[in-house]
Design brief:
Layout lengths: L6 E6 L3 H12 L4 E5 L12 E2 L1 H10 L2 H7 L1 E3 L1 E6 L2 E7 L13 E3 L2 H14 L4 E3 L1 E9 L2 E8 L4 E11 L6 H6 L3 E5 L4 E9 L6 E7 L2 E7 L5 E7 L13 H12 L4 E3 L4 E4 L2 E5 L3 E2 L2 E3 L5 E2 L7 H20 L9 H25 L4 H14 L3 H11 L34 H7 L4 E6 L8 H12 L5 E7 L8 E3 L4 H5 L6 E5 L5 E5 L4 H11 L9
Parallel strand pairs: 1-2, 1-11, 2-8, 5-14, 11-21, 23-24, 24-25
Antiparallel strand pairs: 3-7, 4-7, 5-6, 9-10, 10-11, 12-19, 13-16, 13-17, 13-18, 14-15, 15-16, 19-22, 20-21, 23-26, 26-27
């Protein structure tokens, strides 16, 4: 029997990662508590950019319209030095493929959190503030957590599962004894939000590769407001200078050589880039996500976006296991899939940070010339855009693998094709369900008995599954998706009858021939459970 618990999932931390986790828990039918030690949302915006893949996730969660309204399109990234332009990446001109949101979005983290919290409340959830995790202890069937309230009172909550989304100094991570692996760069950066008058194009970002040190100029939501992020070569972390307008004006004048006028200084910070990854993302019934799992420099704006996708990957799995609809081994795939993502992300950010903090004049000259050369090629710009936009999702084989693969893409473990093939397909994929697409071949249609056989197999599962027959004709009905010009067939590489299973996080999980149900049946037996199989 399952242990008696106060709640299915306790989420510690109400940043973007924790809020997405809470929304997903509710969408997948779990009870949830979200606690945060702060009195209110922090007004300072640590993260500023949402990428294409994250906007897809927020679309599925039902809050992308609010996020787009609260943000501002980041139109281009310019790479310059004192000699002029080295390269330019205009985001709308990149080859985004099927992405429904071919863009970067500038939005203060506080606004992202507001939109997510409003969505959480619309689903019946809420954030409980001024609650600090003191201790946690795993018990049979749950986790006992001691929470400290602002008035000094202690409360014990028993949750079936705990998800730590409480940032770089995670109390959850400390309590379960998970170590961080990595290093601190030793370099010093400063950050400042200011109003800037200049000849630079508004709503575009600038990476200034100056001899005195790199300067990043990031557009903010309000026209004329920017975030300055500057490397301070030779400065020790314990000797950071005071940041004020005169200091910033001198720095911008020196590094850009442009006529600028700074005013209205807002939030400032000094930091040394750290690059750490939690040794494990799971300790029994406790999981780590977001900054609690990976810490790195802000280069490329990857942190918040990676955390959102951690939560998106984890919560549907947690819900299936908690509800008895999948074997417990499904939860092992969270670390198997997301830990390598964190490793690759930190490796790339560390490499980029090292390139930006070169001090030797010859090395800086070579870096700038190489950037100028490479950015002339559309292929390089497209690869950079897809990588930073997090569209090249690819999980290693495991539960996201077919035992009978067919050639073609997207393959198991890759992000499912969406908008470019059919807006109707994107609409049908939205929601907390699994999706089974059954494709006719280009010259042959699946027989009705074959469709019914595979559909019946899917319906034996307790998990919600929507079966869609993608047909070349226009037969009406909820179980069909018309594809008269073959666009969806081409997008999925369906050059013969094909079955594609898409997970709730919109990742392809299986690809195989629907006329031979054995491989699909065998794969499902390891992935999802027939009704009543795991009920206690």
């Amino acid at each position: 029997m399952k242990a008696d618990t106060d709640v299915d999932v306790l989420i510690v931390g109400a940043g973007p990662t924790g809020l997405v986790a809470a929304i997903e828990a509710l969408r997948h039918g779990l009870s949830v508590r979200v606690v945060d030690q702060n009195e209110r949302r922090r007004p300072h915006s640590k993260a500023l950019v949402l990428h294409s893949r994250s906007l897809e996730v927020l679309d599925d969660l039902g809050c992308v319209a609010a996020v787009l309204e609260a943000g501002r399109e980041f139109r281009a990234l310019n790479i310059i030095d004192r000699g002029g332009a080295l390269g330019r990446i205009a985001f709308r001109e990149l080859a985004w493929g099927d992405a429904p949101y071919p863009m970067w979005l500038t939005i203060p983290q506080s606004e992202t959190e507001r939109c997510l919290e409003e969505r959480l409340e619309a689903l019946g959830g809420r954030v409980e503030r001024q609650l600090t995790l003191r201790t946690l202890r795993e018990v049979e069937g749950g986790v006992d957590v001691e929470l400290l309230r602002a008035d000094g009172r202690l409360e014990v909550c028993r949750a079936a599962w705990l998800v730590g989304c409480d940032g770089a100094k995670s109390d959850v991570r400390r309590n379960v004894g998970v170590e961080l692996e990595g290093d601190t760069s030793g370099e010093v950066f400063m950050l400042a939000d200011v109003t800037m008058e200049s000849p630079l194009v508004d709503a575009e970002g600038y990476n200034v590769l100056a001899r005195e040190g790199v300067l990043l100029i990031v557009p903010m939501k309000t026209p004329g407001q920017v975030r300055l992020i500057a490397h301070l070569p030779g400065v020790r972390p314990d000797q950071a200078p005071a940041i004020d307008l005169p200091m910033l004006q001198r720095l911008v004048d020196t590094r850009t050589g442009l006529p600028t006028k700074l005013s209205s200084l807002g939030w400032t910070s000094v930091f040394s880039p750290k690059h750490f990854l939690a040794k494990s993302l799971r300790a029994g019934r406790v999981f780590l996500a977001g900054d609690a799992a990976h810490i790195h420099s802000p280069v490329g704006g990857q942190g918040l976006n990676t955390g959102i996708q951690d939560a998106y990957n984890l919560m549907w799995k947690l819900a299936l296991v908690q509800r008895g609809l999948a074997p417990g081994a499904l939860l092992d795939t969270y670390e198997a899939e997301r830990h390598p993502v964190g490793e690759r992300m930190i490796r790339g950010v560390r490499r980029a940070t090292r390139g930006l903090t070169l001090r030797a004049g010859a090395a800086q000259w070579a870096r700038n010339r190489l950037a100028s050369l490479l950015l002339r090629f559309a292929r390089v710009r497209n690869l950079m855009g897809a990588a930073l936009g997090m569209l090249q999702l690819r999980y290693a084989p495991g539960l996201a693998a077919s035992t009978s693969p067919l050639a073609g893409s997207p393959r198991p473990g890759e992000r499912a094709t969406q908008q470019a093939a059919s807006p109707g397909l994107t609409h049908r994929l939205r929601g907390a369900h699994h999706t089974l697409l059954l494709f006719d071949g280009p010259r042959e249609a699946l027989a009705g008995t074959e469709v019914e056989l595979v559909s019946g197999l899917a319906r034996t599962l307790a998990a919600p599954v929507e079966v869609i027959h993608v047909r070349k004709d226009t037969v009406p009905g909820e179980a069909h998706l018309a594809d008269p010009d073959g666009a969806i067939h081409r997008a999925f590489g369906a050059d013969r009858p094909l079955a594609v299973w898409i997970r709730p996080d919109k990742v392809v999980a299986f690809r195989g021939d629907p006329r031979a149900t054995g491989p699909l049946r065998a794969w499902l037996s390891n992935f999802l459970s027939p009704q009543e199989k795991h009920r206690e």
